[in-house]
Amino acid sequence: MLKARHLLGLAAAAALTGCGQSGPLYLPDSPAAAQRATLPQTLNPASAALAATPQTAPRAEPATEQ
């Protein structure tokens, strides 16, 4: 039982430390940040390649009255 309490205490302490991250959260807006991969691109590189290719939508012709 004593080991379980120690283990639970260590797990709680580890969870509360937040992996050492401190300071306010912010979204970088520098030009270099625009070239970095996003989380979805990191997790699924195949979909990132599809998103990187520009998709051209068919142009709609304006309707003309006759």
TrEMBL record:
It is a lipid-anchor. Residues 47-66 are annotated as: Disordered. This is Lipoprotein. Pfam families: LptM_cons (PF13627). Its main location: membrane. The keyword Lipoprotein applies. Keywords: Cell outer membrane, Lipoprotein, Membrane, Palmitate, Signal. Residues 47-60 have a biased composition (Low complexity). It comes from the Bacteria. It is found in: Cell outer membrane. The keyword Signal applies. The lineage of its organism: Bacteria, Pseudomonadati, Pseudomonadota, Betaproteobacteria, Burkholderiales.
